[in-house]
Amino acid sequence: MGSSDYSVVAEGLRKRYGDKVALDGLDLAVRRGTVLGLLGPNGAGKTTSVRILSTLLRADGGRAEVAGVDVRAEPARVRRRIGLTGQNAAVDEILSARQNLRMFGRLYHLDHATAWRRAEELLAQFSLTEAADKQVKGFSGGMRRRLDLAASMILAPQVLFLDEPTTGLDPRGRSEVWDAVRSLAAGGTTVLLTTHYLDEADKLSDRIAVIDQGRNITEDTPAGLKRAVGGDRLEVVLTDPADLERTVKTMARVTRGVGPEQDEEALRVHTPVADGVAALTAVARELEERGVSVEDIGLRRPTLDEVFLRLTGGDASEAPGRQTSDPTERRPADAPSAAEPSEETHA
Amino acid sequence: MSDSTAPERPGPPLALDDTGAERKLYWAVTDCLTIVRRELTHLAKQPSMVAWQLGFPIVSVLLFVYVFGSAMDVGEGADYKSFAMPGLFAMTMAFGFMNTAMAVVIEKERGITDRFRSMPMAPSAVVTGRGVSDVVQASFDLLVMAVIALVIGWRSDGGLWATLGAFGLLLLLRFALIWIGVFLGLITPNQEAAGNLFAVAFPFGMISSVFTPPSMMPDWLGAIAMWNPVSSTANAIRDLFGNPMPAGDSWIEQNALLMSIVWPLVITAVFVPLAVRRYQALGR
């Protein structure tokens, strides 16, 4: 596969601020037309990466190509091919939404007529037409972000960088921004998104690169990451404590796996399974035949929070916050130890 | 390079050519004007801000001319109003760098500067646009102050050209201070810290010949005040307006007109490179 399949390629990026190493040989590759979520704790180097790739900052070492253009050698050409939405909604508060987009259109070197037309298109695309003539000062956080995104999309850039695009937004604003990003991605824009919200990376990204202390930890699809760390677990919750022993035996036999673990207080038995659906059906059938009264039975996949903690070896206090809770994803009583944190994260 | 007109995906709007020396110059000017237009729209949309910024000089006029004025004797039987008004014009220009610095800090803090830097616009336009609009705003401030001055009875006796020349010198001082403002704005971490710039602005504006002749101050303070660029401009315009100028015999006071041109040029020569360096350092 040629490098033209990738809209963003970074190799061995290094950056230090004084004594502090921000990037320590980071590699990134984002396939054209996909969304890569760059996930990591605060200070992992997410923002530094985006600033380097968007020509705002010069790397100390390594090389990077964005939309096929070398970032260091030809920053001006890169700037015509990218959009950047940074951590602040960088729009003019005193101007109206329409005035903002017209101004940015002109600064992107569109002629007047094109800039004016493009402003209208983007207002419609980002559902801002109604508020177009209102001062941005009065906008909600979500509206500001959408305007910010619209301004980034004036030249319909090949690559869009989003640095923590929903930080500081309420849930409604977040979902507005998510919808906007999804539709941009669906339209073929390559997106590099940094976030410390796991659910955000999970919902928006085709692939997730986990970084910590300026280095790559791992990269995979959201589902792959979860699988790699924990795999599926079959979980049964009983109504009667007397059934615990029988259930453990049944599950052990059906899954032919490691011994199931039980949580006597919660009346819960769980075990890792390879073929989740088959195991689920078999266990459910056997338990029913034996007259075991089951409160709940299901496959549980580890949440990205668990994945993240495991991979970065951090403790819960510095873990990124999870913003929404998905009732279908329950936290297993103790996470499986399939994947140990990689050595280098403890450096 | 032909890439600016060659869309990579269907649909994107065509940006005009901005490569090559001639086109670059065209866009440097055009982008600057786009920024100026933005700044002037700000002023038009925020009349209360403008009033607020004019508040200080206006209050100063009332305070110094009417409250302290009766007790002020600048010597030679001069009318204090005629002495103070040119000083207040100069002081307003001197404080102007605060506006520039504050605007630079706010733009930096809100990420607007980064957005501009990530765009294909001319990098110089960020600063030239700021500079031109600040000078336009300063002209407006001076106009309002001149009207107030006329209302309270101040007059220029220097004739049309000398009067216009005096206002030109005021704007020249303001222009030079843009670069100090940009520099200070870039080294100031945030808006809260920018408030501390008053600690610089206040002595810079006040320890000068704005309100009293330096010859009436203690020697050491008078020397500082005499050599303050604000004093040179204030004295030069007093001369041009034909207002009383109880100047001392020192070289610096005798050559106020010369120095009112030299000082701004020196300030510009020193602070343009410093400001440019700081701006480039944003990328390091």
From TrEMBL, chain A:
GO biological process, alphabetically ordered: daunorubicin transport; doxorubicin transport; response to antibiotic
Compartment list: Cell membrane
A GO molecular-function annotation: ABC-type xenobiotic transporter activity
InterPro entries: AAA+_ATPase, ABC_transporter-like_ATP-bd, ABC_transporter-like_CS, ABC_transporter_ATP-binding, DrrA, DrrA1/2-like_C, P-loop_NTPase
Residue ranges of the region described as Disordered: 310-347
A GO cellular-component term linked to this record: plasma membrane
Family designation: Belongs to the ABC transporter superfamily. Drug exporter-1 (DrugE1) (TC 3.A.1.105) family.
Protein's name according to its UniProt entry: ABC-type xenobiotic transporter
Annotated source species: Streptomyces sedi
UniProtKB/TrEMBL annotation, chain B:
GO MF entries: ABC-type transporter activity
Sorted UniProt keywords: Antibiotic resistance, Cell membrane, Membrane, Transmembrane, Transmembrane helix, Transport
Gene Ontology biological-process entries: response to antibiotic
Pfam family, one: ABC2_membrane
Chief localization: membrane
Compartments in which it is found: Cell membrane; Membrane
PROSITE patterns according to UniProt: ABC_TM2
Superkingdom: Bacteria
GO cellular component: ATP-binding cassette (ABC) transporter complex
Membrane topology term: Multi-pass membrane protein
Domain ABC transmembrane type-2: residue ranges: 48-282
Key word Membrane present: yes
Record field: transmembrane: 50-71, 83-106, 127-154, 160-186, 193-211, 256-276
Extent of the signal sequence: none
Stated family: Belongs to the ABC-2 integral membrane protein family.
Protein name, as recorded: Transport permease protein
Organism of origin: Streptomyces sedi
Lineage: Bacteria, Bacillati, Actinomycetota, Actinomycetes, Kitasatosporales
